[in-house]
Design brief:
Number of strands: 7
Largest sheet: 4 strands, parallel
CATH architecture of the largest domain: 3-Layer(aba) Sandwich
Order of helices and strands: HEHEHEHHEHHHHEEHHEH
Strand content: 5-15%
Strand order of the largest sheet: 3-2-1-4
Number of helices: 12
Number of domains: 2
Distance between the termini: 44 Å
Structural class: alpha/beta
CATH topology of the largest domain: Rossmann fold
Length: 270
């Protein structure tokens, strides 16, 4: 009997091959990187990975995406998106991601049509159905194909497949757009996104890899995984973190005593 993960890979490759050609919405995270790697294997030059560049893209993410694209052998380009021009995105209600993804898929759809690609594909997976994902509605409205979601591939299986294919971002932590650090109902603007990015980069330079700085007006609140919390709460480390966050312009800085949990703002706004 064929190894289930081998069969899953074969099914995904068959699905992508059937598209004929595709533009991959490519952030460089593990989900889109796996789809890009599979598309490169099955479609070759008929596959193109495109990374959206906007004010909501954290520093270093574009370089990371370029590196992954080169490693998996897919052609890579950037496209400028302007989600901040959309009032619904700036307003930052619970449907913010709908407006963000609408902007993204309109841009990628026009690119695909102009260049003769048959489809736009994403890295959405089965676990995304368990969270608040208004971006999936935007994808549906624009005919975006979700190979991983269609096949019922979970996040754990995504990482297993990515490791099998030697995708460099196989174990990369999730890194959603900077606006995800802003509580729903607080307007999103370019200066806020820059401030969040600066604060997070400053904390990373202290040796913390996975983190979020949540924006609460004058307060920057740091969330860290359980494995980093004990170290961060030591007096000397705490002062260094507060200074790092303060260097980005926050008047106050705190470390959340609860461990980091992806999607927390979705929970508090439910």
């Amino acid at each position: 009997m064929k190894n289930p993960i081998v069969q899953l890979q074969a099914n995904l490759e068959r699905r992508l091959a059937g598209l004929g050609s595709a533009v991959v919405a490519f952030s460089g995270g593990v989900d889109s990187s796996l789809v890009a790697a599979l598309a490169a294997r099955t479609l070759g030059a008929r596959a193109l990975a495109v990374t959206a560049v906007s004010a909501a893209l954290a520093e270093g993410e574009l370089d990371g995406a370029r590196s992954v694209a080169g490693a998996v052998g897919i052609a890579h380009e950037t496209a400028t998106t302007d989600e901040l021009a959309r009032e619904g995105y700036r307003r930052n209600d619970r449907d913010r991601c709908y407006h963000c993804k609408t902007e993204l898929y309109e841009v990628l759809g026009r690119l695909a049509e102009r260049r003769g690609f048959a489809a736009v594909v994403s890295g959405a997976n089965a676990d995304d159905l368990g969270d608040w994902r208004p971006g999936l509605r935007a994808a549906s409205e624009h005919g975006v194909v979700h190979p991983l979601l269609e096949a019922g591939v979970t996040k754990a299986q995504v990482r297993e497949l990515a490791r099998r294919l030697n995708v460099p971002s196989a174990d990369k932590p999730a890194s959603p757009c900077l606006a995800s650090r802003v509580p729903y109902g607080t307007a999103v603007d370019p200066l806020t996104l820059v401030q969040i990015d600066r604060a997070e980069q400053a904390v990373r330079r202290l040796g913390y890899a996975q983190l979020r700085v949540r924006h609460h007006g004058e307060l920057g609140k740091l969330e860290l995984p359980a494995g980093d919390l004990e170290r961060a709460l030591e007096p000397e480390a705490r002062v260094a973190i507060q200074e790092a966050i303060g260097s980005a312009g926050y008047a106050r800085a705190e470390i959340d005593p609860e461990p980091f949990r992806s999607g927390r703002l979705n929970e508090t706004a439910a």
